[in-house]
Write a structure and sequence with these properties.
With 136 residues, the protein is an alpha+beta fold. It contains three helices and six strands, in the order ααββαββββ.
Length: 136
């Protein structure tokens, strides 16, 4: 399990992840797992975690997963398509995103991310396509 260094590196790569309070749980090419805690400042009406927070968690986790699966010589990655299905609201605890690569090609990387609440219930599912950017 990664320590604080993995979370700091994640935040350096994506400063917005630090703003959201995302913490790294697992970090590797086969799986990237990160968590965000419920907080009233991240909610919409009725104390439910905002969908934008969930999408940002999925995009951050999926983007890092894509980065770890880039072909040799690639310069980076950028999200070009993302589809999220929301299945339930989160009113307490937190959400953990688990991203796994579905396709790792020369021009695109496709990643699937499941978001689960602290009870293990599926909150949302995201599939995203990341463009492989040319090396510098």
């Amino acid at each position: 399990m990664p320590g604080d260094d993995a979370t700091r590196n994640f935040h350096r790569a994506m400063p917005f992840a630090e703003v959201l309070g995302i913490e790294v749980v697992t970090l590797g090419a086969a799986e990237v797992k990160a968590r965000v805690a419920w907080d009233a400042s991240r909610c919409t009406a009725g104390g439910i975690l905002h969908g934008g927070v969930l999408m940002a968690l999925a995009d951050s986790c999926g983007g890092y997963c894509a980065f770890l699966n880039l072909p040799e010589g690639a310069g980076g990655t950028a999200t070009i398509e993302s589809k999220t299905n929301f299945l339930r609201g989160v009113g307490s605890g937190g959400v953990t995103a688990t991203s796994t690569p579905l396709h790792t090609g020369r021009q695109t990387v496709v990643v699937e991310t499941e978001l689960r609440d602290d009870d293990g219930r599926l909150v949302a599912k995201t599939t995203q396509t990341q463009a492989v950017l040319a090396g510098r």
